């Protein structure tokens, strides 16, 4: 069997393939393997890193309800804003590193990594204003004063985590572009194993301050281990040390980073807004509890699409960089198909157990009933989550962040949310109406991205990729 991964010039799908089921199935199987080789470890990385804050928040719950509420609020709102912005901006490195790797311009991967560091660290300096003024911000949002003040203090203690995001996200995209995902998996697992006893000890001994210290330290260790791996011989072709070229051509990189941040944040904050709007309904406590349970379930299940997002982004950017339009397009549809199958299985499992699984989260019968009712909407989100995130990953791989940002503004915030508010409040459909409007927005965005993928001139995308990765900066100058 021919190894297509070692021969980029081999077309993945031709007219001959379409008339030859054996050849087509072989190509399908090969692409499926390449997707899972990236997606599998990426899913584990997402779970392990997501678990760091989850472990800390769970252990803080033993300190008291006030501390738990403060940490939860900081994690959802204050840290959530910084996390979304920096994760989004980091995907610019994902686009450029992936396309440079596909084009064989290994030297440029290290340059793109350093440019991303420069831009994200500068952004983080501005983002520190959010935790510094977290208390008045939370009070402005109508939060309880005691919770807001404690959350504000905890937010200031967690400022180092923001800087670790700024350093860590570009390194992960740098390694991901080269399909070095197993290294990230083992590093993330090791840090999680280190974090669990460390967090328990620090919280028992120093309370909330210990929670902040242990979580910050774990992120520092995570970033340090990633850098140690990059600086080792494992990445000798793509990392040759620090260079002054990191400070050149920053404006195009900044624009792509900002477009990436807008694109991702508009998606990332959709369900956060849903929970906020749920708090304005009658019986708000029940509605918010039910919505939070559903969001918790969807958050864990979304770890699976996150792996597929990474896979399709790497595959598309690599193939565009290598000049293989057919392979890039084929990879998108294969990844969408895989994600649709896996997410459908999860949706069916939740639907079948809709009267049972709420008992895992609450003893309140009213909340359990509300969660069971919302299960249909949760399953709708999960099914759409099998297509929409993959198409967003395709957009990152192709460098379409700016265009998708406009699509998100139109579908989510100009169409979806007005419909949600009309159904939820004007028609009196409550949380079901709010969620219906959001699903309409996500469905419209998915349809637009499908049309974009279908109508795209992939040969033209190859030319755009060549322009992005052209190294016109001149000879390299090391620090």
TrEMBL record:
Membrane topology field: Multi-pass membrane protein
Keyword RNA-binding: no
Key words, A-Z: Membrane, Transmembrane, Transmembrane helix
One GO term describing the cellular component: membrane
GO biological process: xenobiotic detoxification by transmembrane export across the plasma membrane
GO molecular function, one term: xenobiotic transmembrane transporter activity
Membrane-crossing residue ranges in chain numbering: 34-56, 76-96, 117-139, 151-169, 181-200, 206-230, 242-262, 297-318, 330-352, 373-391, 403-422, 434-454
Compartments reported by the entry: Membrane
Taxonomic superkingdom: Eukaryota
UniProt xrefs under PANTHER family: MULTIDRUG RESISTANCE PROTEIN
UniProt record similarity statement: Belongs to the multi antimicrobial extrusion (MATE) (TC 2.A.66.1) family.
Protein name (record): Protein DETOXIFICATION
Organism this protein belongs to: Papaver nudicaule
Taxonomic path: Eukaryota, Viridiplantae, Streptophyta, Embryophyta, Tracheophyta
């Amino acid at each position: 069997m021919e190894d297509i991964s070692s021969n980029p010039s081999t077309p993945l799908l031709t007219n001959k393939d379409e008339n030859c089921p054996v050849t087509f199935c072989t190509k399908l199987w090969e692409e499926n393997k390449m997707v899972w080789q990236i997606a599998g470890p990426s899913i584990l990385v997402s779970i392990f890193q997501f678990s760091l804050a989850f472990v800390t928040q769970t252990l803080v719950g033993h300190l008291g309800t006030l501390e738990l509420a403060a940490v939860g609020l900081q994690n959802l709102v204050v840290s959530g804003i910084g996390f979304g912005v920096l994760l989004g901006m980091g995907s610019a490195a994902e686009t450029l590193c992936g396309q440079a790797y596909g084009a064989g311009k290994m030297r440029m991967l290290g340059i793109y990594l350093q440019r991303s560091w420069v831009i994200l660290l500068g952004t983080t300096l501005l983002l520190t204003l959010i935790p510094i003024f977290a208390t008045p911000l939370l009070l402005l949002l109508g939060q309880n004063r005691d919770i807001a003040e404690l959350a504000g203090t905890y937010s200031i203690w967690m400022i180092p985590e923001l800087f670790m995001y700024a350093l860590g996200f570009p390194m992960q995209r740098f390694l991901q572009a080269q399909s070095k995902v197993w290294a990230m998996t083992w590093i993330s697992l090791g840090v999680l194993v280190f974090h669990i006893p460390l967090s328990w000890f620090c919280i028992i001994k120093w309370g909330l301050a210990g929670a902040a210290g242990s979580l910050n330290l774990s992120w520092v260790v995570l970033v340090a281990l990633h850098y140690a791996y990059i600086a080792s011989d494992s990445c000798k072709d793509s990392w040759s040390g620090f260079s002054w070229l990191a400070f050149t051509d920053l404006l195009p990189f900044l624009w792509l980073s900002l477009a990436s941040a807008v694109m991702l944040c508009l998606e990332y904050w959709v369900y956060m807004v849903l929970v906020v709007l749920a708090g304005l309904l009658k019986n708000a406590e029940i509605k918010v509890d039910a919505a939070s349970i559903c969001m918790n379930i969807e958050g864990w299940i979304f770890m699976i699409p996150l792996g597929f997002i990474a896979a399709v982004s790497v595959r598309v950017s690599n193939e565009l960089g290598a000049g293989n339009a057919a392979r890039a397009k084929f990879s998108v549809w294969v990844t969408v198909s895989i994600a649709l199958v896996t997410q459908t299985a999860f949706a069916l499992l939740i639907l079948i157990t809709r009267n049972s699984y709420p008992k895992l989260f609450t003893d309140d019968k009213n909340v359990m009933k509300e969660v069971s009712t919302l299960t249909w909407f949760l399953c709708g989100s999960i099914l759409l989550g099998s297509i929409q995130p993959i198409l967003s990953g395709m957009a990152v791989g192709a460098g379409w962040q700016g265009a998708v940002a406009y699509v998100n503004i139109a579908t989510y915030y100009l169409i979806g949310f007005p419909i949600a508010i009309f159904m939820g409040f004007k028609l009196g459909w409550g949380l079901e109406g709010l969620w219906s409007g959001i699903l309409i927005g996500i469905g419209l965005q998915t349809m637009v991205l499908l049309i974009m993928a279908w109508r795209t001139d992939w040969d033209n995308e190859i030319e755009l990729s060549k322009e992005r990765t052209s190294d016109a900066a001149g000879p390299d100058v090391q620090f």
